[in-house]
């Protein structure tokens, strides 16, 4: 696993595109996850929120996988990135940067058995970047970072997880 931190100006470098939220409708978590559409506010809310920050960072973790390890790497990488973002938020709070908040790439993986009727960990759950309408790939390109080709379980390769930390 490799972790890359890229400082960005969220109000200028985060790309929003309504097509990102459409992709959520094809996900098996759609309507079942409290941190994804349709359970989260619409894209306009997230645009206003993100643009209210002048400091942020993209946290990108890259993992090697094989056909045999794909499902395990996919699960572990999501959990690791989520934990990393929560830790970075805590570090910001410790510095009295109390507006710090993050968004994760993809749906929440805090509960291995999936979401219940109510979120069991609301203090740790974070909204999905894509669900907020963020074009993750476009944002990475603007920040000067190219991601590996989208992973496929039948090929070996690299899987990238991207999160966004907003700090003020």
Keywords:
single chain; 168 residues; alpha+beta; 4-stranded antiparallel beta sheet; 5 helices; 19% strand; globular
Description:
It is a single chain. The protein is built from 5 helices and 4 strands, in the order βαααβαβαβ. By secondary structure, it is of the alpha+beta class. It has one domain (2-167). A 4-stranded antiparallel beta sheet has the order 1-2-4-3.
Termini Cα gap:
29 Å
Unreliable segments of 5+ consecutive residues: none
Number of helices: 5
**Secondary structure category:** alpha+beta
Q: What kind of oligomer do you see?
A: single chain
Q: How is the secondary structure organized here?
A:
Elements: E1 2-8, H1 10-13, H2 18-24, H3 43-51, E2 55-65, H4 70-94, E3 101-103, H5 136-142, E4 157-167
Antiparallel strand pairs: 1-2, 2-4, 3-4
Brief overview:
With 168 residues, the protein is α+β, with helices and mostly antiparallel strands. Helices cover 31% and strands 19% of the residues. It has one domain (2-167).
């Amino acid at each position: 696993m490799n972790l890359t931190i890229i400082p960005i100006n969220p109000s200028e470098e985060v790309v929003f595109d309504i097509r990102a939220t459409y992709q959520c409708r094809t996900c098996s978590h759609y309507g079942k996850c409290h941190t994804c559409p349709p359970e989260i506010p619409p894209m306009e809310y997230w645009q206003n929120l993100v643009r209210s920050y002048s400091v942020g960072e993209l946290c990108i973790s890259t993992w090697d996988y094989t056909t045999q390890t794909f499902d395990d790497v996919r699960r572990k990488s999501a959990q690791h990135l989520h934990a990393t973002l929560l830790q970075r938020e805590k570090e910001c709070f410790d510095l009295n940067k109390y507006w710090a908040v993050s968004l994760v790439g993809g749906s929440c993986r805090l509960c291995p058995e999936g979401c219940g009727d109510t979120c069991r960990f609301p203090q740790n759950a974070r909204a999905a970047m894509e669900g907020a309408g963020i074009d993750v790939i476009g944002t990475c390109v603007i920040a000067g970072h190219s991601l590996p080709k989208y992973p496929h379980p039948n090929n070996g390769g690299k899987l990238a997880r991207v999160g966004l930390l907003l700090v003020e």
